[in-house]
Design goal:
This protein has a single domain, classed as Rossmann fold (3-Layer(aba) Sandwich), CATH 3.40.50.1820. It is about 40% helix and about 10% strand. It is built from 16 helices and nine strands. It has helices at about 10-25, 40-55, 60-65, 115-120, 155-170, 185-195, 220-235, 240-245, 250-255, 260-275, 285-300, 300-305, 305-310, 340-345, 365, 370-380, and strands at about 5, 70-75, 80-85, 100-105, 135-140, 175-180, 200-205, 325-330, 350-355. It has a nine-stranded mixed β-sheet with strand order 1-2-3-5-4-6-7-8-9, sandwiched between helices. The longest helix has 17 residues, at about 220-235. It is globular, with a radius of gyration of 20 Å. The two termini are about 30 Å apart. This is Epoxide hydrolase. One of its GO terms (molecular function) is epoxide hydrolase activity.
């Protein structure tokens, strides 16, 4: 399995074409007078597209990303892109070897979302923490996202977990490691704990789990109330998911051809799911938001990022029991309002850490990196 160093480099031809498309964008009128009521606000979009075309500093973004050590590994004939940030223990090198942690993102995300957290985990001394808590951090890009190839077969969270385990043990040579993730990455993290308890010392997620198998133990009254509320929320929020599950190529054709459309599609979910109180830019500064969208544009991977939706029916809906130590730091978003701990305990048989901080949404690792870093240290410290 070959591993090669990797640097992001977007050609000037791609950037020139991007700017030209942005300057020719055709905008729509709002469907509702209320700000963002019918999706991405056309006025906000117009302003940000103008900034993207003439104001956004991609060279700066590229330099910032390339400051992190990146690689691509060949695993079963498919390329996996990842960041590998080694622990920085400063003047406290003694003690046990740093614990490796693999961090997994979701959709419409990227490895960029996890970089602030990675810095705090690998070098806690530089962020007011104890250098002895430093860990090795691995952040892979999900298959079909940016610089990672799609799998040779269906995209399932269980399949991604097997690829991640190969990356950690056979490619990087770690015998034991911890895992963290949210959204899709949370599902991958659960499967890592279920499938490889001999190597995974613990799992930590920020998105709730719901077992689809209630045959052995029917849901309690509180669990039923939550599941009904979740169904109601999904009916309001699930339009994006339905089209990506059923007609991903139709949508991808539009988003691959229009950078403004791509920005609108991604920004809509960032605003809805972040703990931003309706003001997206309180959580996602323009530079970071445009960095992520530029990466999707330059790699042409928005369509392949839909694959896990199209293949969703192939997932094993009943999550296998996870018997390794587990932690949940529940994100503060509508989908998980009033989520009962008992649902997590159906899957996690050794749930040692349960936290509902009340801040930090779907992208908690980016929105609240200090909070998440602290919870990860608390949970994983005794598991080294």
């Amino acid at each position: 399995m070959t591993v090669t160093p990797f640097r992001i480099s977007v050609s000037e031809d791609v950037l020139r074409d991007l700017r030209a498309r942005l300057t020719r964008t055709l905008f729509t009128e709002p469907s509702d007078s209320a700000y963002w009521a019918a999706g991405t606000d056309p006025g906000w979009l117009r302003e940000l597209v103008a900034h993207w075309a003439d104001g956004f500093d991609w060279a700066k973004a590229e330099d910032q990303l390339n400051a992190f050590p990146q690689f691509r590994a060949d695993i079963a004939g498919r390329a996996v892109h990842f960041v590998h940030l080694r622990a920085r223990r400063g003047t406290a090198p003694d003690g046990p070897a740093p614990l490796p942690l693999i961090l997994s993102h979701g959709w419409p995300s990227s490895f960029v979302e996890l970089l602030p957290l990675a810095e705090r985990l690998a070098d806690p001394g530089a962020h007011g923490g104890d250098p002895a808590d430093a860990v090795d951090v691995v952040i892979p890009s999900l298959p079909g996202f940016l610089y990672s190839d799609l799998p040779d077969g269906p995209f399932t969270r269980r399949g991604v977990a097997e690829t991640w385990h190969t990356l950690m043990t056979e490619v990087l040579g770690y015998e034991r490691y911890g895992a963290f993730g949210g959204d899709i990455g949370g599902g991958v993290t659960q499967w890592l704990g279920a499938l490889h308890p001999e190597a995974v010392v613990g799992v930590h997620i920020t998105s709730a789990v719901v077992s689809a198998d209630f045959d052995a133990q029917p849901p309690t009254a509180r669990e039923s109330a939550y599941l009904e509320a979740l169904d109601a929320y999904d009916r309001e929020d699930g339009g994006y998911s339905e089209i990506m599950c059923t007609r991903p190529d139709t949508l991808a054709a539009a988003l691959r051809d229009s950078p403004a459309g791509l920005l609108a599609w991604i920004s809509d979910k960032y605003r809805d799911w972040s703990d931003c109180g309706g003001d997206l830019e309180t959580r996602w500064d323009r530079h970071t938001l445009l960095t992520v969208v530029t990466l999707y544009w330059a790699t042409g991977t928005i369509g392949s990022s839909f694959r896990q939706y199209y293949d969703y029916h192939r997932h094993n809906r009943a999550v296998s029991p996870v018997r390794v130590p587990a932690a949940v730091t529940l994100s503060h978003e509508p989908a998980y309002a009033d989520y009962p701990r008992s649902l997590a305990e159906r899957v996690f048989h050794d749930l040692r850490h349960w936290s509902t901080p009340g801040r930090g949404g779907h992208f908690m690792a980016y929105e609240e990196p200090d909070q998440v870093a602290g919870e990860l240290r608390t949970f994983f410290r005794p598991l080294r």
